[in-house]
What does this fold into?
Amino acid sequence: MKNSSVLMSLQNQITRDQKFAFTILSYITILLIFVNMLLINSPAIGVVTSAIYLLINATYLGHALFREENAFVKFMLGLLLLTVILGLVGWAVMILYNLNIIGAVMVLSITSSFASFLNKKVKSENVGQ
Amino acid sequence: MSVNRKGNASYFFALKLLYLSMTVLLFYLLYLSRRVEVYTVWEAIPTAFMPLFIVTTLLLMAIIVSTERVEYKLLFTILHSILSHVFMVVIFPAGNIGVQQTFLGKTRLVFDNVISNGFGWSMPGILPKIYILFRGENIQTAFSVIFARMFGVDVYWTHLLLVPLLWGIFVPFIAFMTSKTLGASERVSVLSSLVVSLFPTTIVWGATSIANSLGYLFFFCFIYSLLKYLKSNKVKDLFLVIPFFLASFLSHYLAGTVAFAMFLLANGVKTYEKEKSESQLRAKLALLTSFTFSASILPFALAYRRFFYLWADTRFSLQPLYELSSSEAFFSALLGNYFDFISREAYITTLVLGVAPLIGLIGMIYVLVTSARRSSKTSIDPCVLLLALGVALIAINDRILKLFMTNVPFVEPDRLWVFRDFLLVPFVALFIVGTILETRAIFDRVSKNVFSILQKTFSLSKFSNAFSFFTRGHLIRDVSLGSILAYVLILTVVSSWVTVSVYYAYPHWAPLQTTSYELEAVKYIDQNTKERYIVVGDQWIIFAGQMFVGINNPRAFYFSHIDPHGISLFIQMKTNVTKETLIEAMKINNATVAYFIIEKPRMGTETYNDIINKAQQNSLQTYKIFYYPKDEEKLRIFYYEKPING
It folds into this structure.
């Protein structure tokens, strides 16, 4: 029970996104991924920053599209959808531009903005109700 | 179905700990099985591995049927699923040899910025361009490159692990969600997540990192989203259908086409649901029309693929049917490719590949019949109806492709089976739970009868207490003897069955996998050659080389393994090893250095030694020799360098 409530409270905090704190954190992770790709090439930095990126954006998508599910299922479905969106956007960017470092940053930014937008939209709908 | 009650926290903790320890041990054993030279995983895996695998699966089954939280059950099932799918990645030095390495060769070009805009723009004509741009190599490349850049690792790792990890994580999860959407209880749904492993096809396709596997994975996600949409009828859920459809379509045209047919079928089912209240006949006719149209999509898509891809030559033909005797044609139409297995006396393969679908089919028919009987209006759950029609659609397509078409672009019988297996998973779980309940009832009855007979026969007073204890049919409060026996029996059977499925999923015969010294050789060349170079070698060395430098990379040139020019150069070198052939090869990418690689296990000792002798006679210099084990020569690189003023 304890683990589930921890996950739930973390999800609540992320989806509340007060003052766009988590959206900004998501963009900071993209910046760190960019710096890592360009200069450092460290898997440790990459894994940590990517994990934070995935956590925030999967939570946004899970919250926006699977509100009726429990915390774990919401996160898993959000993660699956985030993976698919990353692939689809990556495909489009590769075909139209290039999947170099700039292209990869574009993919991450587009996906993150989309997830954040959906989260905000659902939040405003909830407030409206 | 519950065996336990509250207050069993310590028991659950011990069970979870034991399961996790066993899983860690199995991963460790797999890691220890990693080999330099290996043909199949079974050659390397220690004897103790499979018995331990059965025990671990049994522990997982015990966790699944317990009252443990569903999140833990799912996480443990995912762990088990990942374990089942990484055999080849862990044991082989460079994953399964062949197509997935070619895919990595292409992905490498994008990762190293050798090419931009993916694959397809260079094709002549607009239609072939579109066809290649929408093929799976592009989206798989996008996945592998994005993850590699995100995690700061080489694309080699993200490519090899992409499908085994995504499949291992999401296929059990989607099986769980699909069963839940169909209305199954949480325990049946969690059981579905393990039951996927009963189908060997879902193991083998999830173990190889190729676009086809990605197509299957996203098809399964698509089916879940489609069922969710069908059930809720909300536009919001349609939003989910679109990305999964696009992902499956972009991953592989087969998955995309079947997904499209299923989408049309779902619309047919929706129309049927709307119309049936007005006119049953009209509704059924509409459904039949929709089914017929949906079933025709795949055969026509294959036949007309040549509009986009000029080399495709799939056609409708009665030739395959004419080649069979009437009895063979009848049984082929009835049993599909299972009949081929039976004809070849491959009974075990037939059994292993056929039992789970058969049980799923029985489960599905049972659900259809009971739901039709239960309702006065013979109304069937639209989701169940869609899955049933989907299975029928796959069966019909399978027979059409086998009996009425020639030059179908895939020869493996299980390509279409994977779709069917995914559709049947929830019903297999339902069948297993039904079997547990029935067995429990039988055992309860038998145990009560047996003990009451024993009590009557031996009416000894000192045993009377013990007999009455059993006669009640209960060992401990609320847990009957029959229940325990039923659980032990069914869980053991299912665990063993999962293990057998894994055992038969991985090939028992294969060519020598890419060896560690082949990898070392191609890496050595790349690290120590600053100039442009070209490598002439057999397809095995091409597979190894392209993983690190890509296919047709002008800086470090490896031919595609199907390039006729590359093949003819290799044959020339093999028959008469001379500088002239290497000089001719160097013209291809204006290389300064050319390498020729030979491997003893691939060519045989005699040919290998013969080439070395000829090379010495023709003054072709050796660049590097690789040994394995320590003193045995296994691979030799010859080289020719263009003179500086030449």
Notes: Residues 2-128 of chain A form one domain.
